[in-house]
């Protein structure tokens, strides 16, 4: 059985950048539906899922039976991507990375502002629903990706460490069609301490 993360802040804690109604609906309705659908889908297939993290399932999705494979991509990706998204947001975020992550950002992008621009452009430029991601490979090298729908970068052998959700339900109540404004403002909430932790310690 898989579950959504425990939200580490109140629904209204991310205002004024993300409104309370959006956070509550996004977390309690949309994410919960992905959790429910995923757990229903994998019932009876425990031999394929037991002892594995969701990202491990997604990284090895071709090993799953064909009849549940696309469902795990859609519903499992929905849980994994949302859990990462909500975990990275904070009303009192660390504003910039340090240490090894900052060094790698400088090596890859030149500076933090350039990284933000590239991730923002990936998110804003995603046609339809999806995400912009910062990912690391097995050697700790960074790159920027965007994915369609609930596809996870884990399916391509890389580890997502930062994401911006650009499904309309993530921003439309407050920002309407102004996706770029939402993406610009979300950097006020991204906690670089969480991103650093994933960069240094998380593998699939």
TrEMBL record:
The Manganese/iron superoxide dismutase C-terminal domain, residue ranges: 97-196
The signal sequence is none
Gene3D superfamilies xrefs: Fe,Mn superoxide dismutase (SOD) domain, Iron/manganese superoxide dismutase, C-terminal domain
Keyword Transmembrane helix in the entry? The reply is no
Reactions catalysed, semicolon-separated, are: 2 superoxide + 2 H(+) = H2O2 + O2
Q: Which GO terms describe its cellular component?
A: cytoplasm
EC annotation from Swiss-Prot or TrEMBL: 1.15.1.1
Residues that coordinate or bind Mn(2+) = 26, 82, 165, 169
Q: Which UniProt keywords apply?
A: Metal-binding, Oxidoreductase
The enzyme class is: oxidoreductase
Q: Which Pfam families match?
A: Sod_Fe_C (PF02777), Sod_Fe_N (PF00081)
Among InterPro entries, the record links this protein to: Mn/Fe_SOD, Mn/Fe_SOD_BS, Mn/Fe_SOD_C, Mn/Fe_SOD_N, Mn/Fe_SOD_N_sf, SOD_C_sf
Q: Name one GO molecular function term.
A: metal ion binding
Q: Per the database record, which ranges form the Manganese/iron superoxide dismutase N-terminal domain?
A: 5-90
Family membership noted in the UniProt record: Belongs to the iron/manganese superoxide dismutase family.
> What role does it play?
Destroys radicals which are normally produced within the cells and which are toxic to biological systems.
Q: What is this protein called?
A: Superoxide dismutase
